Amino acid sequence: MTAITHIYNYTVRCPHYKENEQTATWLNHIEVNQSCEIALDRITKWHNLSGTKSFEIDDFVIRKADNEEAYFAMQSDRLKHDGHALVTFKIYLDNCCQDASPNKIMEHLIDDYQQRISKIE
Questions:
Q1: Rounded distance, CA 44 to CA 66, Å?
Q2: By C-alpha distance, which of 19, 35, 22 is closest to 90?
Q3: DSSP state of 42
Q4: What is the DSSP string of 8-39?
Q5: Are 84 and 69 in contact (CB under 8 A)?
Q6: Closest Cα partner for 27 from 88, 101, 105?
Q7: What is the spatial distance between Cα 103 and Cα 82, in angstroms, rounded to a whole number?
Q8: Which domain of life does the protein's organism represent (predicted)?
């Protein structure tokens, strides 16, 4: 059995305000943390509220929440030296982000995640 050795939680909140004179964009509002509690909370919530399958990118299945304007996904990956990574993604969309593409956001996040795990020795 392989232990979970690395956890990544991505959260994107589409902003409805400008910050420091920068253009309001989801690229400025990406949070990444490694909290086990957040990962477990998300897995538990999503198990009970699985949402509706929206699209797939590579091996990731992205679902749309039924009760909020949010998209989510999770996956685990085997790593070198008997390690294991768990990743969760959550994208919050609201009225300000009608032009934000969940597909484009997920492609960006997945690429970032894959770069991170490729550097693990």
A1: 16
A2: 35
A3: H
A4: EEEEEE--SS-BTTBPP-GGG-EEEE--HHHH
A5: no
A6: 105
A7: 31
A8: Bacteria
CB count within 10 Å of CB 45 equals 13
Please report how many Cα atoms fall inside a 13 Å half-sphere around the Cα of residue 78, on the Cβ side. 4
* Range in 11-25, 28-42, 73-87, 90-104 the model is least confident about: 11-25
What strand order describes the sheet that includes 70-79?
A: 30-33, 6-13, 83-92, 70-79, 60-64, 52-57
Residue 72: name the closest of 84, 87, 94 by CA: 87
| Three-state secondary-structure class, residue 92 | strand
* Cα Rg of the chain (Å, integer): 15
